[in-house]
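Input for the complex:
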Amino acid sequence: MARGGAGRIRKVSRKASGMQQPSPDRFLAALASLLPPERLVTEPERLDAYRRDHAELVTPGWPIGAALPIETGEVAAILRLATDYRIPIVPRGAGTGLAGGAAATEGAFIVSLTRMDRLLELDPDDLVAVVQPGLLNGALREAAAAHGLMYAPDPASFEISSLGGNLATNAGGLRCLKYGVTREATLGLEVVLADGRVLRTGGRTVKQAAGYDLTALFVGSEGTLGIITEAILRLRPAPGPAATLVAFFDTLPAAGRAVAAIAAGGVAPAVLELLDRTTLRAVEARTPLGLDTAAAAMLLAQSDAPGAAQQELEAIAAACAAQGGRDIITSRDPREAEWLMAARREALPALERQGVTLLEDVAVPRRRVPDLLAAIEAIAAAHAVVIGTFGHAGDGNLHPTLVFPRGDAAARGRAEAAADAIMAAAVALGGTITGEHGVGLLKRHALPASLDPVALATMHVLKVALDPWGILNPGKAI
Amino acid sequence: MARGGAGRIRKVSRKASGMQQPSPDRFLAALASLLPPERLVTEPERLDAYRRDHAELVTPGWPIGAALPIETGEVAAILRLATDYRIPIVPRGAGTGLAGGAAATEGAFIVSLTRMDRLLELDPDDLVAVVQPGLLNGALREAAAAHGLMYAPDPASFEISSLGGNLATNAGGLRCLKYGVTREATLGLEVVLADGRVLRTGGRTVKQAAGYDLTALFVGSEGTLGIITEAILRLRPAPGPAATLVAFFDTLPAAGRAVAAIAAGGVAPAVLELLDRTTLRAVEARTPLGLDTAAAAMLLAQSDAPGAAQQELEAIAAACAAQGGRDIITSRDPREAEWLMAARREALPALERQGVTLLEDVAVPRRRVPDLLAAIEAIAAAHAVVIGTFGHAGDGNLHPTLVFPRGDAAARGRAEAAADAIMAAAVALGGTITGEHGVGLLKRHALPASLDPVALATMHVLKVALDPWGILNPGKAI
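Predicted:
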């Protein structure tokens, strides 16, 4: 697979300066001799299915085609041709991203990893799984459960999102509060670089200190530095049955203060989620669960500490009560727990029934959660936008979701302005514009104000070093 | 502080090609107007103290001088001058590294961060500490404990090693088995780049998905990509009192099998350490603790699971017994626990009393620990070298320590050959040549055989991108 060492990058980089023009026709002709017709899509009506992810406000361009490789060698061959003919590449998994990272750009070529969906190995002794990027998170979850193990990162989309997309965005999830995000669960990667060379990082050891941490660099790089074709993921022993708590609050800041108090009090629940009134009402409207829709907010906590779950929940209940929490219910019944968690997972689909949604993903230091909640309320009022806020309050990562009527351009404009205001508020509170969804196309305009300028310049230096022709998902992430 | 954006790197890089010669005299003269004499060392007798770290087998070169900056601005000014005059820079902290990462190279200039040793902030609500690199790990440990918190990474050297060095090497430690290594405890960094620009990564949020993970890239880069001048570190609520277990085994492989069985059995102790007979005898010879020096190995486990420590230790005791473990003692007495942990921390100093030591740091997938132990035994016999093996068996990271008489060149040669054989054995078992000490100068010859060649080439591409003049700790790490 290799086509020379680092020297080649420099050589071609000089050659690239101004000489070579993109040649889409020759690129597609070369691909046609590489891939069978059913895995090389060029007809517009079939291509339409590969243009979008779940970022509804991102307008995709028209790609020149899409490939469905079934092995690393094919991905490498595609990238070698893309390099030779200067064709921008948009990699995509299941297309469930919320920031437009997988949205097609005009004239790009799509590499869909959905056919590379095998669980290559699950080793219960080493506690690792080796996966292809198209495997769904939920499929790995089930396979691990059969061995009494768990794959910790659990984005709300776990049933429909692919591990490749999870890796590209450094996806989080509900129990990441206790068990860490995708980057912490990734021990090694196989990555195809822009020029088609194949690289392997990390391995099966838990600790690795030899050289730079390329694994961490590629995770979360949103397909702009390479295409992940295989991953070694860390599994954990499945925790015992969880105990679950629900508490209702009459004001949002009170719920926020309870979150901050729980973190400061030394309790480490596996899950600590918040749903505000707008979200509660949307969930109830879609699936009547008997939630208190008069409350300003609901907190949902889960503890899986072996032998100490009840004790942890009691500490959480006390922290909630001290901040005015009421109707505090705890349960050790797994079915009831699953039902309460489902309420949380319903949040986005329920809000999506109310109109077009723009899902925010800001994160702030934990004790700033009350301030962020207050800022969101003020922004909703100032911009006259419906905002349903829910998310991973325990780690300061919230998803204020802006909802507006389809086809209402003025409302859309207000929602976009409100989203920008929410990101600015998070940054002003010492936080970030994205905790787990990534930047994609949706947030790129907000990145310069949220990152140190030298850090952003350094990211661009790394991008040029690894992708000197700029063919990998250009215009995304940084 | 900034001297232009990314464009400057490219411009100077072109200018650098062949034109500029190092000018140490002009460099030192410029520094003399920047730093007071007591913080600019050039006399050989004073310089000698800045030449070495704890890698005894690494022969350091003679530096042209050493600076002791007290603030980031001084570090930036030094690096700007180093860039202008093409002077290689060796950053150093407390000098406790075991791979020669801080060893002086001939003609280099030392930047010692020991005077930048302040705890800038400890925020018990956000659970973060903001530190300068010269602060000792143990000092942060104490400050955190005063708030009922802990900083998890605990290298055996914690009382004498600096956090900057911990960051540079991605240091591990005993309880990293449960709580993760330095990289997992680092939320953000301030870094001075080769050209003197100052960069800030990350922040105080637990989750961050905006742009590439520069934090993870700089952690573990051994001072070859930038000098860390500040870090935002993650604290955790201090766990309750731990329960401790000791078990003795009559064969090394039996102890290794017990380790693998504990991991596979779903128990997650905070600490799971191994000491072999050679190490036990060395410890007893230095500090009589009543350890069974007839045993082939001792396992030392600690659980701090709230409410479930005893239950976890019972599962560990059962796994040990099933593999022939005997004289299994468990204790919940904190003083007894501290005493048993001290036995582990005595391991290296005790072996160092027996001769010159070459401390290995290999890691393998967990179920390969018995194979690694068997390989080490065979290598010791084949090379006629005394090897005391101890370390973090629970995460597959062992420190086989080769001991030979001072001044015995033949024995030293055998030890070096045995160390190479141990690294090769770890790689053959799917492991790595360093789990937590880094590559430094000591292991650079072994790196190509242990990393994917495209990964290593990519590391060099990143190095050139961030340090185009190659002035940062040249010849180390990659």
